[in-house]
Amino acid sequence: MDLFIQQVVSGFATGGIYACMALSVVMIYQAIHHLNFAQGEMAMFSTYIAWQLLAWGLPYWAVFPLVIAISFVGGFAVERIVFKPIENAPVLSHIVIFIALFAIFNSFAGFIWDFTIKAVPSPFGDGPLYPGAPIGTHQAGMIGVTMVVLVMLWAFFRFTRMGLAMRAAAANPDSARLVGVKVSMMTALGWGMASAIGAVAGVLIAPVVFLEPNMMLSILLYGFAGAVLGGLTSPAGAVLGGFLVGIIENLAGTYIPVIGGELKLPIALFLIVAVLLIKPAGLLGRRTVQRV
């Protein structure tokens, strides 16, 4: 029973990171109705910026909000410079751009900081939370920071005019334009917020997986799995799906001998395929009905 509790709590901690990635994926999907395959690389690049600032001697809790702000500006700029001119282009054009961004961020990170693995310090420490605790201090810190970020986002979208405008622009762009919402600007803000959320995930997971240009590839796959499981049309579903993926991954790796620690990643791919076959809209997603 102790092992089960330990794996559930540990899965909840990593699931918080997957939830952040899933939420960032869903935010961009709702804005442009495409999956951003470069989302993980953008988060990785932000994590390298955080590592560089830490190496220059800045304190962690000054670096953390600064990197979030830099990531927001970067995501906003990517949408304005790259995707705004092709917003009416075919789907294939967007996919090609996503793949290009993936390669650009990955290559530039390696070019600037080289491809060697780097250790990122944890501000929470590396020991157990308390003697006999099922999780360590860093895992507890990940849970705490993730929950604070998610609550702040929920409050932003629920109680602020800007958040309501972004929700309206994502749900029904034409109607939002009729009531004066600048849909194009809301899309750019969504990109910025998605990039900032991805940066949170990257900075928090880096002390666990170590920092290198390919560190976010598996995290992005888990984020995709969480988004699909919860529903690509539901931010709340994406968060729920991310936490569920983290718990399922840990329990499967512990209790299914065939999977172990080496085959955890295919679980994410299996979940994506299974959900698309059984419930394409996801747990909390809404079905899209079109007249033909």
Low-confidence spans: none
Q: What order do the helices and strands follow?
A: HHHHHHHHHHH
CATH topology: ABC transporter involved in vitamin B12 uptake, BtuC
Q: Please bin the fraction of helical residues.
A: over 70%
Please count the beta strands (DSSP E, at least 2 residues each): 0
Which architecture would the CATH scheme give at its second level?
Orthogonal Bundle
Radius of gyration: 19 Å
Short descriptors:
292 residues, single chain, ABC transporter involved in vitamin B12 uptake, BtuC, mainly alpha, globular
Short description:
With 292 residues, the chain is mostly helical.
Architecture overview:
- α1 packs antiparallel against α10 (235-255) and α3 packs across α8.
- The longest helix has 31 residues, at 2-32.
- The chain has helices at 2-32, 39-55, 60-83, 91-113, 137-159, 161-171, 173-178, 183-209, 217-230, 235-255, 265-278.
- It is globular, with a radius of gyration of 19 Å.
- The chain has a single domain, classed as ABC transporter involved in vitamin B12 uptake, BtuC.
- 42% of the residues are buried.
- The chain has 292 residues and is mostly helical.
List the helices and strands and how they pair.
Layout: H1 2-32, H2 39-55, H3 60-83, H4 91-113, H5 137-159, H6 161-171, H7 173-178, H8 183-209, H9 217-230, H10 235-255, H11 265-278
Helix pairs in contact: 1-5, 1-8, 1-9, 1-10, 2-3, 2-4, 2-8, 3-8, 5-6, 6-8, 9-10, 9-11, 10-11
